[in-house]
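protien #1 (seq + structre)
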Amino acid sequence: MKTAVEIIEILLKNRQVVDRDDFLSPNYERVMASHDPFALVDMDKAVERLVLAHQQQQKIVIFGDYDADGVTATALLLDALARFGFELVDYFLPNRFTNGYGMTVKAVEQIVAEKQPNLIITVDCGSLNQVEIERANQLGVDVIVTDHHNVAEVQPPAVAVVNPKRPENIYPNRSLSGVGTAFTLVRALQTRLEGLAPGQEKWLLDLVAIGTIADLMELQGENRALVKFGLMVLTKTRRLGLKHLLDQNKLEQLTAETVGFVVGPRINASGRLEAADFALEVLTAQTLAEAHERVEKLNYLNTKRRALQDKVYSEAFEQATESDDPVLVLAGDGWHEGVVGIVASRIQEEFQKPVFILSRRPEQIKGSARSFGQFSVFEAIEACRDLLLTGGGHDAAGGLSFKPEHLEAVRTRINDFYRSLNLSDQQRFLEPKPEIKLDSFAVLNKDFYHQMRQLEPFGVGNLEPIFEVVNLTTVQVLFLGSDNQHLKIRLRDSDGRELEMICFNYNKEWKIRLEDRVKVIFTLSMNYWNGRETLQGRLLRISKI
């Protein structure tokens, strides 16, 4: 039988941890000292241009993105530049319904006409915007790009392109988020400007943590330290709107998971449904009244997002049950563009197939795709290029648009492409893979749980440990929810120890009953209720033995 100490050592070894103490208790100052912001190409040029803007008090516009990474990055620079004494700073967040995705010529022209800046700083975008930045230059506006997306072979004509993915970089972290890159710019500015004393930049880490988690960045090295300390800052955040948002949702324990499932979606809901400005206003609220009003709006949008999402999911699910295609290409009239990506992820999980969820309107069909395993969304979209108006993405996700009359041709082309690959057993890529296999619940207690949480924050690159326990008996089976879609069970091992587990939207094919002999795959969590802690499993899979 494995002891708690042995399990922790296995988990550390699996994560290839070299320095145990540094991993479990990272030192912020040491991590930052080993990540010189000027090791990012063009950081020196960005700082020099901003120092000039500071001396002349030039007008600056921060050009963000409408997702949580872009919104937090925008809020971070608004906060930091104000502390440095920049007096004329404004922002622009594109509206997905009127401006489209990212930086566009139309948006640049609108910013110049309405805000008349001397300098635009992009956050979480800009690396591939050659034409748009050329247009800004033609209009007499300089541009500094801070981004973390893929870069071009030839950089756009900006004053500086600060991006950890540039191959010339010697910066040790290539996986910074957009807000993480903006934070690194702030650290560089601290070497030249007064107003944000060394150490005071830590108060920006609440925003860095939210954006890094929401954008699914790898939680290793510097990112791990930024999020770990960011979660600490988040517990005592000075941002009135953010504090009110946390209080409203009664988050007793702030972890990467709760930020990813509660905070991130609410910030994203604003840009998905209306304008991301509402989310930004939560992060920048200056009074309690303003904080309350903005959080109420954000909660309303998130509730609306869920209702729209459930409606689209229900209609898409019905279509999916009627399709034998290896790739589900599902389209509905007026499906809200802001939720099709989320629905695609849910349908993929439910049917274990790659999924395209498309909103059909008279002028065009537009949507999002999700995939897994060896089937690349990007390659599938490329196989349809001659039928598309727009399209792009990467292996796991993407987006596209085309004329309504091409729907059946697109569906056929995507599925023909899938069949041409002769793929097999792709479902194995979705199977939860247990990291620790046990014969009983003996070691799984509160003390072990709290030891295990020292490995947090969990996320991409540092996944939450998955356990498998065999030889169990079901002693309680409850179905919860309006449609009995959730499962709560209590399991007993051969020595009489019991553990409760819960699964949301469980697989109906499990057909679990009382007194079944089973093995389970699960993660370990703590249920906090009325000040009490109860150890609980998050059920991933259960099978009879």
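ok now protien #2
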Amino acid sequence: NELKAKYGTVENLNAKCGTDLKSFEAVELPVRQPKTQPEHALWELWRRCRERKLREHQRAFYRVVKEESPTVDIFNIPSCGSFASPLFGLNFYETFCDTDVSGVDGTCVLDEYEWQYADLCPQKRFLTSEWGGLYTEKPMQYLYGKLWQEMSAGSWGAEQHYWSFGEDSCNYVDFLDYPTKNGAMLWAWLRDVRRFDPLLLDGCRAEPEIGILYSQTARCHDQAWGFEGEARDSAHLQAVTDLYRLFLDWGRSARVIDEAELLADGFRPPKTLFVAHAAYLPVEVQERLNAYASGGGNLIVIGNSGAYDRFGRPSGVLASPTLAKVTATGVESALRALGLSERFAVSDPTRMLREWTYDGETYLILASRNGTKGQDWGLDEVEIAVRGAVGLEDGLTGTRLRTEARDGYTVFRTLAVNGARVFRIVSGAIAPIDDKAAMARVPHFAAGAATKEAGDLKDVTLPFDDKLYDATAIRAGEAVFSLTTVGSGDRPDSGESYLSLTEGGETVRRKLVEKQTCEMKTPNGRAFKVTCRRNFQMFPFFSEVRIEEK
């Protein structure tokens, strides 16, 4: 009935979807992942219908509650597990539109996935629920660090359950209702976070310099359904997550932007916007991206983005000559070409720096990555670099920090425990991205006793047994190993991977085949044994290898 009301005649429906239906009664609900263009069209009509019906229900619920109890705040608790399959039928952005606060369940979600609840809430703060990470034995550092990670991403707080099951080691209280070690740790975190309540509750994360487009349309059309046991992969979903993680690694100020937010009135786009492996994009989204680029925005397109419209029809809309089509390995060089140097750099890769604004001032929150920092509760010294010339003070004590100027950055050292430190900028400001003095690349910090990074080259000791990325070569003495991947653009297992060995100006190359071993020799007689366990031929291209000298 809905299709009949929308299209009037079955001929109009066929013209729109590329189908050859004899009547509206012949339309069948999709029961498998779409492969052909007509299947994509019918799947799109069905999935948008169900998302719209859910939105109508949520709007009605919101309206009724507000009419009866205007002061009651409304939220719901969708799960980040909804991204595991397009069959769950949940559009996070639309779901959060009809709430006062998001109650999303982000239980134990790693930081590279936090954008799902932290960035897809339009103008909303979130309250993560069900801290299931402590239903099993976890180090206390995990709780302390993970809570700070989420608070610094925009959480209003954490809904926590107190429970006692016999003599379970995860209890917060014992059988007499006295706090256990877990309960004492939670109390300590609450004590610390209350020192910054005004900043966290009344402030907000700063506007990003980089945007990463997320398309619900692209994800729902390229994600496998898993009905036949296949992995429920989505090239677009994986690319968004990989970019988010890499920008955290690189000290970039980046946020994920939903395609509906891009179309919203009053949307303020960031200076640079990435669109990665979003093969299926609504025409109106592609047109808005073209307008963004024509208006001076830096639009960086990776892979086959915009190859099809939302009905699976070939699309040439996203083809403006102002677009910069780049490969995954060109992401960092593209940013440098735009003058977009790192906003921050932190010497400890298990930590991140968040920027907050509160009462017209800028604060920096040093938080944990994924709540992990080993088992050591000792104080660690961390070096932090902030782009531009700024003066800083400790947010808790008000003590002015001792800093130095280095390559266009303000650099300082601080002691940190697994949790968070808060700093306030008291003079100057973080330099804008077009500040020529800040375009020098800030030196990478040491990443371990046996590893020293310098630009896109990493010194290692052999044997090397890890992921080798296209973007970063490794050097063992005078031998430099680099990876080149030729991918299909939309499948991690479709393409070819080549390993190059350079020494003394001479280069040899071998094709890497999964679960096979090859030998590489340099002109001066050094021999290396290379075993390839896996090739990942989609952004961010890498191969899992073991390299040892014979």
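The first strand starts at residue 126 and ends at 128.
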